Amino acid sequence: MKMPFKFLLFVVMSLTLIFAVGCAQTDEKTSEPEKAEVKKESTESSSKEEVKDKGVVNLYTSRHYDTDTELYKKFEEQTGIKVNVIQGDGSELMERLEREAEATEADVFLTADAGNLARLKEKGLTQSVTSDVLATNIPEKLRDVDNEWFGLTKRARVIVYSKDRVDPSELSTYEALTDAKWQGKVLIRSSENIYNQSLVASFIELNGEEQAKEWAAGILANMAREPQGGDTDQVKAVVAGEGDIAISNTYYVGRLLNSTNQEEVKIGEQVGIFFPNQDTTGTHINISGASVTKHAKNVENAIAFLEFLSGEEAQAAFAEGNNEYPVNEAVEASETLKSWGEFKEQDINLTILGENNARAIQIFNEVGWK
Ligand code: FE
Hints:
The protein is of the alpha+beta class. The protein has 16 helices and 11 strands. The protein has helices at 2-23, 48-54, 66-79, 90-100, 114-122, 132-137, 194-207, 209-222, 231-239, 250-257, 262-269, 299-310, 312-320, 335-339, 351-355, 357-367, and strands spanning 39-42, 56-61, 82-87, 108-112, 126-127, 150-162, 186-187, 245-249, 271-274, 284-293, 325-326. Helix 8 (209-222) crosses helix 16. It is globular. Mean pLDDT is 90; it is low at 15-41 and 44-51. Bound molecules: fe (iii) ion (FE).
């Protein structure tokens, strides 16, 4: 009775996801593989009996890296808990989780940006988790104040500049990019994107609404072109000479530099990374992170899974899979990231990015940043 129902549920769920993704409009180019094609995969466990004993953890994730799959296997080996992975676009998976409600099989939801995780929490799709391990491994500002989501990897939203045309001594702060000096030279993606919403949400917190709005209006006035494409497209446009500077998350440049495609490596080598606001409020950071879902059926396994991903053994590989910084301070960043040097971060709890999200969207609308 139990098995056929589960199988039927799986078939229905899979078809729904395939349909949903088929219809989805993507806001990132295929060169930005956070929006992965859907595939259902489960890492095979060598011992089925063990799996039966220890149960499973069902994961919805917008990540799709081979390094992640290897880590899940390692978790299975260490704990006997089988990891079932459903991979897809973050917003589609969020809609799916909402639609499935109590019937969902998802125990853990993993996606990018504290703003997205805050939305998940706001929709009542997450639950609070008490774990000393998570509290120790993850700095407080990278966790939800109610412990409903946890940062697992960290990225910075930085100024990427043309090494040919910009001397880094000309750069200082996000605010300075609104100076007339940069008119027609700034490349940045649409305001519909959560990364820019979270950036402005952080400015609302640190500088107040008035200044956040002035910043958005000033950047709009200096744009090299109408917002289009993802962060990688902005970096490529810098190299193509469409503008001199872009605002991008660090891992996109890391991906270019570590690409197997030599053309992409060349593009990565022609830009520099500048961490803004080092003498003031710090560089904006954000996370990829995870929640235990509200209706998780395997809560203990879900917590064990998050604890494993935040641990020293997993952190380096998990972060490096996407050229990100580990959140666990006991773990070193990759060589690429270390080559950019250390930097001062914004000192705010990322929960605030969710709280200020609606106001940030309003500001974009008010100034006319599409
Ligand atoms: Fe991204």
